[in-house]
Amino acid sequence: MQVQSYLFFDGRCEEALEFYQAALGAEVTALMRYKDAPPQPEPAAEQGCGPGQMDPEKIMHANMQIGETQIMASDGMNGGKPDFKGFALSITAPNENEAHRIFAAIGEGGQVQMPLGETFFARSFGMVTDRFGISWMVIVPLLDIG
User: Fold this and answer.
1) What is the pTM of this model?
2) Domains of the chain by range and CATH?
3) In sequence order, what are the beta bridge partners of 6?
4) Which domain of life is it from (predicted)?
5) How confident is the model over 57-70, as pLDDT tens digits?
6) Helix ranges, 56-123 (H)
7) Sheet of 69-74: strands edge to edge?
8) Can you tell me the distance from the alpha carbon of 126 to that of 114, in angstroms, rounded to the nearest whole number?
9) pLDDT band at 51, cuts 50/70/90?
10) CA nearest to 109, candidates 6, 19, 5, 4
């Protein structure tokens, strides 16, 4: 069984993908725009589920690979109010230098929640919310957990 994150960016998905490519070396492995979808039957379209409900150039579905992790993303499903509360994505960095690089990159245009530093449970740990409202935790564990 696998559990994967699916993030909805309310029209900013392409910008987010470009940001994560630059900040984290994310690789976009799949991308489908609303214009690529077949027409939806009337009941789905009436409920706002069809491709006709979004700008045809917006992203219906994308996969991005960050390290060994796949994250899915879309422009849809927010209704104008992206809300990324109640969860965070966590990145385990191989060393403190890489943790600082990652933390600074994803924090650009965002807000630091907890500065990156040594803790009782990690050689380095910090929390930052990126410019899209996604909370990230960056950690270099005390012990090698790889």
Assistant:
1) 0.84
2) 1-80 (3.30.720.120), 84-146 (3.30.720.110)
3) 72
4) Bacteria
5) 999 999 999 999 99
6) 96-107
7) 5-8, 69-74, 59-66, 27-33
8) 5
9) very low
10) 19
